[in-house]
């Protein structure tokens, strides 16, 4: 039997647009680079992913609550967090092509080529050297390293590089009616700081006891030098973050716990274990004492979809120093070593940070399925979206065999009876085989066929997306049967 061809990123992009998942933003004006809109099916899938993440955090854990902080924050927030002084990427231009690149990504690309060629030691040595030079902020040496490694511009094919410059990734704007320096504010580059500045508000109003967590889903903005690989890296994106506040000295225990918990989440939503792996950070961010990425195997290789970081007390301590407002927690529990209360301390933080758009892309890539069906001369390729039923944009489609003889009216009645329980659509356009295919292509797990026998036995035929098997089911059982399969509980139970 012939196997279906391997999936490429272009396959994913084309399918996402063709079937209403993701569109280029402002496409009638030729689009805006690295900005995308979610279509009618994409917004449902993304909302389902956000919903299951939110429930996995706030519903499964008694000590985690949520907030929704403003995008605009006081500018000193970003001074305290280090973003104003240190949120930079190394930028380099090719003088011949006039194209701009991130210097570190050029070197990482060369390391990936070396790895693919079986020269993993050379690749690791190159990455280690790059990490040291960037850590030392020796940008001229970074340029020399690019040239010595013969890394040419992909467009011009030349080594005619400019110097390397640091480029701050924050978008700035003005607030108020007078545009002067004092009115400059920033679009947030991450959602975490909205949690940190509300640490005491949540702790006191919710009477929270350490350890506890605060979750948030929200937009963030980064003026990426090179945004690429579809929605994997965008200038406007959405994060799902949870900051978990712990007693100093216990952070590694919680760090390891959250590593395992978050990997279980990704498996529970349907991402296979063989397509997931941990990647420990060699070079830690300024705020971390441990960091690991959960990576998914995209068509373009393993890339990060979530980071778990032990952030120490960096954020709360800096906010305390700059705001002159204490960010301490009084812990009345007894220290077994001193037999006294732990007392006042600034909590340490373990962070879990998921890119909602990257999780969407991983889920989409994993679900996109091409397979050969049939035998001999009748064999053909079948494409469908193998989404977890709880994540699918549409849970069930009601399809009357024909429009006449009362089947259309009966089908609409069935669809209306299910809509209050889960997203159901009614479709009577065209041959029923083509309607099955339409639903396969957006990932609908159950199609309900209404035929002439339905009028006599009050039963319908459910067609299962993945196997294409069909079974006869009483109309009275549809809501319970399908409702159980598409419920978010199926994912939460698996975490």
Any overview of this molecule?
- Belongs to the class-II aminoacyl-tRNA synthetase family.
- Homodimer.
- Residues 135-393 form the Aminoacyl-transfer RNA synthetases class-II family profile domain.
- With 495 residues, the protein is α+β, with helices and mostly antiparallel strands.
- It folds into 3 domains: 9-71 and 172-363, Bira Bifunctional Protein, Domain 2 (BirA Bifunctional Protein, domain 2, 2-Layer Sandwich); 88-168, Herpes Virus-1 (2-Layer Sandwich), CATH 3.30.40.230; 387-492, 3-Layer(aba) Sandwich (Rossmann fold).
- The protein is 35% helix and 27% strand.
- It has helices at residues 9-18, 40-59, 76-81, 83-86, 103-116, 120-135, 139-148, 192-196, 199-205, 251-268, 314-323, 356-367, 407-418, 432-442, 454-457, 478-486, 489-492, and strands at 22-24, 36-38, 64-66, 88-93, 100-102, 165-168, 172-174, 184-186, 212-221, 236-246, 276-280, 290-298, 301-312, 329-335, 340-345, 348-355, 368-373, 380-385, 396-400, 424-426, 446-450, 459-464, 470-474.
- The strands form 7 sheets. The protein has a 7-stranded mixed sheet with strand order 3-9-10-16-13-12-11. Strands 20-19-21-22-23 form a 5-stranded mixed sheet, sandwiched between helices.
